[in-house]
Amino acid sequence: MFALICFLALVLYRVLWMRLKASDHPLSPTRALEIARKIQFHQVLLHRCETAIGLPAPTASRL
């Protein structure tokens, strides 16, 4: 099972690398994953059980 997970991770990494390269994006897969790791998802329960869901706007400090 561990080998399967490692293989899938390698395939996903290579696909990400190929897509970044095809779009002429300057990021490496490692840097793109570092940025993605910093994305935060917020869900807040408001008065009367209303839910507010969203992503924070990107700032220079997060990139």
Write the layout of secondary structure elements.
Layout: H1 2-22, H2 29-37, E1 42-45, E2 51-54
Antiparallel strand pairs: 1-2
Would you kindly provide a brief summary of this structure?
By secondary structure, this protein is of the alpha+beta class. It is built from two helices and two strands; from the N terminus they run H-H-E-E.
Radius of gyration computed on alpha carbons: 17 Å
Low-confidence stretches are none
Helix content range: 40-55%
Percent range for β-strand residues: 5-15%
Mean pLDDT: 83
Within the largest sheet, what's the order of strands?
1-2
Distance between the termini: 34 Å
Count all strands and give the number: 2
> Secondary-structure element sequence?
HHEE
Q: What's the structural domain tally?
A: 1
Based on secondary structure, the structural category is alpha+beta
Largest sheet: 2 strands, antiparallel
Shape, per Cα inertia axes: flat
> What is the tally of helical segments?
2
Protein traits:
about 60 residues, alpha+beta, two-stranded antiparallel ribbon, 2 helices, flat
Notes on the protein architecture:
With 63 residues, this protein is of the alpha+beta class. The protein has one domain. It has a two-stranded antiparallel ribbon. It is flat, with a radius of gyration of 17 Å. The N and C termini lie far apart (34 Å).
